[in-house]
Specification:
Strand content: 15-25%
Organism: Dermabacter vaginalis
CATH topology of the largest domain: UDP-n-acetylglucosamine1-carboxyvinyl-transferase, Chain
Largest sheet: 4 strands, mixed
Radius of gyration: 22 Å
Modified residues (2-(S-cysteinyl)pyruvic acid O-phosphothioketal): 121
Bound molecules: ligand EPZ
Shape: globular
CATH architecture of the largest domain: Alpha-beta prism
Number of strands: 23
Number of domains: 2
Keywords: Cell cycle, Cell division, Cell shape, Cell wall biogenesis/degradation, Cytoplasm, Peptidoglycan synthesis, Pyruvate, Transferase
GO molecular function, one term: UDP-N-acetylglucosamine 1-carboxyvinyltransferase activity
Number of helices: 13
Strand order of the largest sheet: 21-22-1-23
CATH class of the largest domain: Alpha Beta
Main location: cytoplasm
Helix content: 25-40%
């Protein structure tokens, strides 16, 4: 366990790094392997702690895993899926929310599933009511007990007509992973359609599923009796790519992010262009650089795809502290994802948070006492400080701030960043950052 991480800021990040598969697809594709009767094979798998957690969770359920971390390959053999002890699930799940997505596949394979107390980043209350409602819609029984939630489906699972109150990524994945082998047809209205979900649909189709996506964000799934394994290359991590882009720009640097893919990052690239950042898009990656002409402010609102994704918000806010003028950020996906700004203010930023919906539209958090809008007054020089990583994206954003700050910052809890940023220490070294650990 690392005790402290120190960054001496002010050096431009320069050079090239590579991003591999998206954290938010890899874990779901791994769960999908449980549904197959034969082996599945995933490539471009990043070496992040979330992959280690899901591997262990699969192992305790009897799945054989072979992994080559360097090559980024993962072979999963689900031919002997078995019940796991709740204590083992609990021990391996740690702070991850992924066990909730095991429910559909385990109900199909074993007729029962258990969800321990869930964690995940503390960026809002993050309830699981949509997931439980979805499972009930398929005919599962949900029993909340002291140490977890026990789910059974003694009569099997049946396709259903479902409408999500909000296009939740996880609930959409829950429907997909359950419906593909449920009896009959499932129609899901108001589904989330993030690129990671489309990639999961591609994985499931490779396994033999029948899934269609309508233009009105309705997904129709025709259940099949049997699925096979798959071979799939994960789509690149667009959150990691955007995070390095912001790090390059905050430090007035020049970084080529190999593997970054334009298609899934369009909204982010538009914002960077509009504020005056240097963006060169290539087939094999994207170059992000300081043009030397300064940045202008922006008004952004986070939203489900194809809107500006919430996971880009935190790194972008750090960048906006360096832009000329007043920027407005309206967070509409999580009610509590702006708490990280107070430490940025301690570093010299000028960010004010508001309960009101600032910007274009009213969201479900308006008038409900959540500080979910921010006004960022820039440019403000940042100075080194002692900071503690609050959550995964907030943590990387503090790292970006420290890299751009004058003086030395001490960051506590840096290991949390390993959950979603592969070999970030090696990448920092490659880009010339000045940091050390004690
Ligand atoms: C996924 O979380 C991602 N995580 C998140 O990335 C990402 O921020 C989020 O989608 C939105 O894009 C993974 O893929 C592992 P949601 P998920 O269900 O599926 C509310 C990162 O840093 N909600 O779309 O958990 C919820 O509270 C992480 O990589 C309910 O009310 O997100 C939130 O306000 C963080 N009830 C909204 O919906 C529910 O049962 C959207 O959440 C479920 C969700």
């Amino acid at each position: 366990m690392t005790s402290s991480f120190y960054v001496r800021g002010g050096k431009p990040l320069e050079g090239e790094i590579t991003v591999r598969g998206a954290k938010n697809l890899v874990s779901k594709a791994m769960v999908a392997a449980l549904l197959g009767e034969t082996e599945s094979f995933l490539t471009s798998v990043p070496d992040i702690s979330d992959v280690r957690i899901v591997s262990e969770l699969l192992r305790v359920h009897g799945v054989k895993i072979e992994r080559d971390k360097e090559a980024g390959t993962l072979r999963m053999d689900p031919s002997n899926v078995e019940r796991a002890h709740v204590a083992d699930i609990d021990a391996h799940a740690g702070s991850s929310r992924i066990p909730i997505l095991f429910c559909g596949p385990l109900l199909h394979r074993l007729g029962e599933a258990v969800i321990p107390d869930l964690g995940g980043c503390r960026i809002g209350t993050r309830p699981i009511n949509y997931h439980l409602d979805v499972l009930r819609n398929f005919g599962a029984h949900v029993d909340k007990r002291e140490h977890g939630i026990y789910i059974t489906a003694p009569d099997g699972l049946r396709g259903a007509k479902i409408r999500l109150e909000y296009p939740s990524v996880g609930a959409t994945e829950q429907v997909l992973l359950t419906a593909v082998r449920a009896q009959g047809i499932t129609e899901l209205e108001n589904a989330a359609v993030e690129p990671e979900i489309e990639d999961l649909i591609a994985v499931l189709q490779k396994m033999g599923a029948i899934i269609s996506l309508r233009t009105d964000r309705t997904i129709v799934i025709e259940g099949v009796e049997k699925l096979n394994g798959y071979r799939h290359r994960c789509l690149p991590d667009r959150i990691e790519a955007a995070s390095w882009a912001c790090a390059a720009l905050v430090t007035h640097g020049d970084v080529f992010v190999r593997g970054a893919e334009q298609k899934a990052m369009g909204t982010f690239l538009n914002v960077l262009r509009k504020i005056g950042a240097g963006v060169d898009i290539h087939d094999d990656g994207i170059r992000f650089y300081d043009t030397g002409e300064g940045l202008s402010s922006a008004a952004i609102e986070t939203d489900v795809h194809p809107g500006f994704m919430t996971d880009w918000q935190q790194p972008l806010v750090v960048l906006l502290t360096q832009a000329n003028g007043i920027s407005i950020v309206h967070e509409t996906v999580y009610e509590n994802r702006l708490g990280f700004t107070s430490a940025l203010n301690d570093m010299g930023a000028q960010i004010q948070v508001y309960r009101e919906c600032l910007g274009g539209s009213r969201c479900r958090f308006g008038q409900r006492n959540y500080n979910h809008s921010a006004v960022v007054n820039g440019p403000r020089p940042l100075k080194g400080a002692e900071i503690t990583v609050p959550d995964l994206r907030g943590g990387f954003s503090y790292l970006i701030a420290a890299l751009g700050a004058d003086g030395t910052s001490q960051i506590h809890g840096i290991d949390l960043i390993d959950r979603g940023y592969e070999s970030f220490r090696d990448k920092l070294t490659k880009l010339g950052a000045d940091f050390w650990e004690e």
